[in-house]
Amino acid sequence: MRPPFPPSPERSAELRRRFAEEARSERPDLSTLCLLVGAEADGELDEAGLDAAQVELDRLAGLLPYRPGGPRAWAVALRELLGERMGFHGTPADYQRLESSLLHEVLVRRRGLPILLSVVWLEVARRAGAPVYGVALPGHFVVGFGPDEGQVLADPFDGGRVLTGADAELLVAGATGSGIDPSMLRPADPLDVVLRILNNVRAWAAARPERSDVALWAVELSLLLPSHPARLRYERAQLLVRRGEFLGGASELEAYAEVVEAVDEAAAERVRGEAFAARAMLN
């Protein structure tokens, strides 16, 4: 992939307005939010490109058989279409690529991180009327079909392989070293999915200090979600300082210190010290 070039400031402001509006809507649309993330990363993703991605999800849904049966039949139908016929799956190398976290690129490349491939499964299956939802297992995102008592899990990263109970146990044990808990199998909220995607983008950027621009927009989109970790404000402040925006970073650090002071006065003082040091860099 060519280096992602950001959109213009005017375009970015509009994308963020729409992202915040969608995130705060009664029923946030997962594909819309993911595509807006992609547009913030890729200035070449215009309105026609956003529409084309939605049309592709519609097209794929239209290729599924009509109401194939119960949860397992749905899982098999998705595996046969997306995993086998269309070739969507993941590889270890996909973890090193930013486009693996961008829905429009995943639809073109048919490669991506587990969570983005799961978004493809979710959006195609949802359009076709399947009883589908995301399942945020520790360290690995999968999709689920059907109610708790008849739940069927599939792994889009592995081409949609239908998982046995033992398979799910192994995935969780590999990530945590412990057994699976029923709470891990609950449907994931769309906004939690988006936050997890943005966390992956931040992790990608953190390993590449020269891409602090990517880290910054990922943090700023995360802060637009109705619920987010307060510490993201501290991370944004640090990024601003790192990028040479000392006054803005210092102001953010001071605001964060006000937030944490009520629960940790020592931490607040340390953050104020960082703010003082950031302002001193202007001299």
Query: In this structure, how is the largest beta sheet organized?
Result: 4 strands, antiparallel
Strand order of the largest sheet: 1-2-3-4
Helix share bin = 55-70%
From N to C, what is the helix and strand string?
HHHHHHEEEEHHHHHH
Q: Please count the helical segments.
A: 12
Quick structural overview:
This protein is α+β, with helices and mostly antiparallel strands and 283 residues long. Helices cover 58% and strands 7% of the residues.
Structure explained in plain terms:
Helix content is 58%, strand content 7%. The protein is α+β, with helices and mostly antiparallel strands and 283 residues long. It has a 4-stranded antiparallel sheet, with helices on both faces. It is globular, with a radius of gyration of 20 Å.
What is the strand and helix layout of this fold?
Elements: H1 9-23, H2 30-41, H3 47-62, H4 71-85, H5 103-109, H6 114-127, E1 132-137, E2 140-145, E3 152-155, E4 161-163, H7 165-176, H8 190-206, H9 212-223, H10 231-242, H11 246-261, H12 265-280
Antiparallel strand pairs: 1-2, 2-3, 3-4
Helix pairs in contact: 1-2, 2-8, 3-6, 8-9, 9-10, 10-11, 11-12
Descriptive tags:
alpha+beta, 283 residues, 4 strands, 58% helix, single chain
